[in-house]
């Protein structure tokens, strides 16, 4: 949701931009802050307190029936609003009603369906899809990859500031190494061409890194693995840079491939991550290892994939499977 002309929301947006929050975080936080204000009949948040926060978060669970993860995002947005922006730390508002809505079982593709989907992709699109499935990356993690994050010798991928700002190392299929080598050469040539433009300010780096390594913005390793097709100005500045591809484009080409194949399931970039986890567990990989690969903080999040394995609910064999074959035909 946009800031809709509100000076207050616009000031929050600028505050977040100046502190290098991602576009996704800015959009999400502004949405929930606006919902909070509208819920309290457009009263200014500075006039509201703990009880008002509790009432809103409880409303999300009791009336809007949002998932627990959605409720947590709203909570984080309000914590940011009071602690960072208003510098008015809220007290204890932990007594809100927690959302009891259960997570849906993830959609998982079979290996045959993965093969069919990939047959409709080529070039960079196939490479991106291969990393989503082959390394279990989130969509935003793939588009934010920088060349230096790819370790072709080991092979492995370093993921920086994943969900919850966690770092991790995940697997890289050796079969992708030659394709990545060729892709990196192409991206490096593009970067060198950009550097011939006098207005080019190098790739975007967090402020701390920019200060520590002033020349890093022009080094190949720091450039995005999947750069945008054109140069653009960094929001709020006059710095000409080449950003990474837009993450929304990833789901678009995956959906298009799914339609071409005729797969009946709803397929998104996250479906490939779900399939990565489920296929690893089905192959006997330890759940703690899968948890580390996915970057899950709690193993209970990873356990949801055990429910979609072909072995049935928690590995229980159905008694119907033990009936005489003629009885099965009768059914």
What's the SSE blueprint?
Blueprint: H1 7-18, H2 23-39, H3 50-62, H4 68-85, H5 111-118, H6 123-135, H7 139-143, E1 150-151, E2 156-159, E3 168-171, H8 177-195, H9 207-212, E4 232-233, E5 240-241, H10 248-261, H11 269-282, H12 287-294, H13 299-302, H14 325-330
Antiparallel strand pairs: 1-2, 2-3, 4-5
Helix pairs in contact: 1-2, 2-4, 3-4, 6-11
What does it look like?
The chain starts with 6 loop residues before the first helix and ends with a helix. The radius of gyration is 23 Å and the shape is globular. The protein has 14 helices and five strands. It is mostly helical.
User: Based on DSSP secondary structure assignment, what is the total number of beta strands?
Assistant: 5
The oligomerization state is single chain
Structural class given helices, strands, pairing?
Answer: mainly alpha
- List the total number of helices: 14
First CA to last CA: what distance? 53 Å
Mean pLDDT over all positions: 87
Q: What overall form do the CA principal axes indicate?
A: globular
